[in-house]
User: What shape does this take?
Amino acid sequence: MSACFIFGKLYGFRNLSLWDETGSILRSSVLMILVNTLYLYAAKSVLSFIVIIGGAAAFILLTLTARYFFRVIFFRLGWLMKTVIILGAGEAGKLFADKITSSPFTIRRALCFLDDDGSKQGAEISGIPVAGKISDFRTLQAELHADEAVIAIPTASRQELSSILNMLESSTGRVLYIPDMYMLTTSVAEIRSIDGVPVISSSQGLLNPVNIAVKTGIDYVGAVIALVVFSPFMIWAAWRIWREDGRPIMFIQDRVGWKGKHFRTYKFRSMFKNADEITRRLFSNPEIFADYKKGIKLKDDPRLTETGKILRKTSIDELPQLLNVLRGEMSLVGPRPLMQSDADIVYGERFTKKVYAAKPGLTGIWQVSGRSDLDAEFRREINCYYVHNWSVWLDIAILMKTPLAVISHKGAY
Assistant: This one.
């Protein structure tokens, strides 16, 4: 067991999210089960495989629970905490600060931002002050003694980065760099050396036929189970729609799918029958249409029926898309399927091809990251990130997060 946890680098608390830590524990535990099973088989033990699996499941549950509480206690006491200075108070810096502030698993605390934008001097971003310009780092570091420096300037030129790194290396123990989300480097990238030449090796999981087969298998099994589990909600939704506004119960629409192919999506109807007429009237307002082009949805949409508001809040309106999953047109997890006109606005031709290199999904990374509260640019970036960084565990993590996103109703309107 110890060897398996050493292999998974679990002795110690790294700055992992709950989902990443769960994944590491599960992988190490599966390895532990295989090792124990082989040992028992070689020793001709009478201990049943069911007992091994049951014991492993209990061990995983206890380990996750214990590590969670130890993290919370240690970090509230300030143990293992690392202080950081963030260079760059733009979107990348703000996103990093928000993540380490909101995560209960964080081991980092931001002391301040540094940014060369004069308009940001003295301001607070995400509750963290902008304490000066980047050139002030050494002076502040001598005063604050930060453990790490974070470079959150993804658009910095090679010369600018070199200058910043030279300044940081002599005054801080560790430097982190946040790259542009469109860069080749992904979560599965490896830095290797070929005859002394450093290279970045990167692979895209969704181009691997084995990975596609695994993802497809999970989709079919998961869709069948979900249809059985959620069938009472679907029957209730159909009855509520028919009772309030009559037929049709379903809303069928052409959407962009995998590799740009179009298909017909199924949803429970959440809008009035004359929604198109209301839409034309709404979009005659330049401000509303401008928000729509930015990917911002109406928070009090007059096109929604009372039942539709409930269906949208709970995402029950999207359950019929499980049929699209069984038809092979969608996946359980992936980018949201959009109408061609919406895809052109949100992604543009170039990024539509990138985003739909994966099958559209019933849920996805943008739904668990804020849904309609995210602007079009961030939706582009986060969906491209998903495609480039796909893994089976990333899909599982998104599926695990989805119920929490639905319950919170964040961005659902």
